[in-house]
Amino acid sequence: MNKRELIDYVCQNLETTKSGSEEIVNTVLRGIRDGVARDGVVSLAGFGTWTARERAARQGRNPQTGEPIQIRASKTVAFKPARAWKDELN
Questions:
Q1: CA distance 72 to 25
Q2: pLDDT tens-place string over residues 35-62
Q3: What is 40-90's CATH number, 3.40.190.170, 3.60.40.10, 2.60.40.3880, 4.10.520.10?
């Protein structure tokens, strides 16, 4: 499912317009993004948790030349699904 399909899903289930559904989806996604940036974690009970993580600088290898390269430290976001959701999938 991509973002457009998610908007269509929200539109059908909430019986709203596509533009209204798009605004809802964008607001929820923006809230998750802002929450992770501000607090470092967003947790939705029964769904999962997004957590900000830091990756340390490390040594890598250029796949074309095999030459060693230095990869800079960076920030990323990890998602861990809730146990209830994982159990439902299995």
A1: 33
A2: 999 999 999 999 999 999 999 999 999 9
A3: 4.10.520.10
Average pLDDT over residues 21-34: 97
Ranges of each domain in the chain? 1-36, 40-90
- State the DSSP code for 40: S
**Structure-block tokens of residue 78:** 């990890």
The residue whose two tokens read 């470092």 is: 40
Pick from 62, 60, 88: nearest CA to 74: 60
What pTM, to 2 d.p., does this model score?
0.80
